[in-house]
UniProtKB/TrEMBL annotation:
This is Methane monooxygenase PmoA-like. It holds the Pfam family DUF6786. InterPro entries: DUF6786. It comes from the Bacteria.
Amino acid sequence: MTNYQKLVCCTGLLFAFGVNLQAQNTFGEDLNFLKKHQKVITLKTNLGKSQLIVSPALQGRVMTSTSNGLKGNSYGWMHYDLLASGKFEEHINPFGGEDRFWIGPEGGQYSIFFKKGTEFSFENWFTPKELDTESFDVIAKNESSVTFQKKMNLVNYQDFKFNIEVNRKVSIFSQKEIEKDLNIDLKQIDFVGYQSENEIVNTGTQAWSKETGLLSIWILGMFIPSENTTVIMPYKNKLALNSSYFGTVPPERLTITDKHVLYKGNGTYRFKLGLPPQNIIPYIGSYDSKKNILTIVKYSFKGDTTYVNSVWAQQEHPYEGDVVNSYNDGPLENGGQLGPFYELESSSNTRELKANEAIQHLHKTYHFEGDKADLNRISKHVLNIDLNEL
């Protein structure tokens, strides 16, 4: 039984049997649902057409967004049953959300998800509550941004204690900011764009070292799958695709060109892909050809090569991990499923931080809706791919 199969069996998530097929919800419906179960913050711009919902109780994560007001499409995937239950699971709570804050590594000899001396098996794997169920403090907010802070004490597999402060700011973009950042024209296109600025500070007295373990910032976004959705991973140089996370990916599931890795983000077959630093063009995206929704994620990357490795095993190269990942959810052998959803993820580099030093990571998410020809101009310019060729 795989780790995630055990997760479904052992944590009681058996209610996730296709009940989260989030196909028809509007943004307004999702907003009303979330308000029934927790306090949320709504950020707005573009006369209210561009909006997003942020949850302080769930680590300041962006739950969902829209480019067309309350009646517009809701872009983020959410686990409605789990959110409504008011209960916490033992190992992880996959609440969903378009931009959630995590910290790596997940596995290996420097993991913060396993206790020292335990086997790297599901029974011993626990998501730190600070990243899963504890709230972040709201430090400041206005109509277009909200700032969070959280003090954390984490212990890794080497029993090294990390005292850290997390600073996180979520901001929604204006039309001019999006056009400037991506160098595009948004005439006759509905849009929403936002970023999370993330920082972890070493607030302890002891410096971090590779010998005792390092940390990195990890941002994950969960989106609604469909048979019409293609995930687009641009790359450069000779491809070193990591496709071994959950076993071999059937060749027919992937299309690999000299510039892109493509797959159908339909949530029907479970696998995960990753790209290392030498392949990075700092974008990843997806396109829903039926709804004409183009999603683009842009993240900070300055050519660093030291990234934590999250594989569940003793690792020969614990600091040669991936920069960007994409996960396609799918059924497990027992018939259960965590989603379905697909993910677009990015990670920061890692460094040996002295006291009061910090690591930062910027993760930006854009959604565009409109005529395919207009979306194609954006796709060709930013992702370097013609949507007509998907």
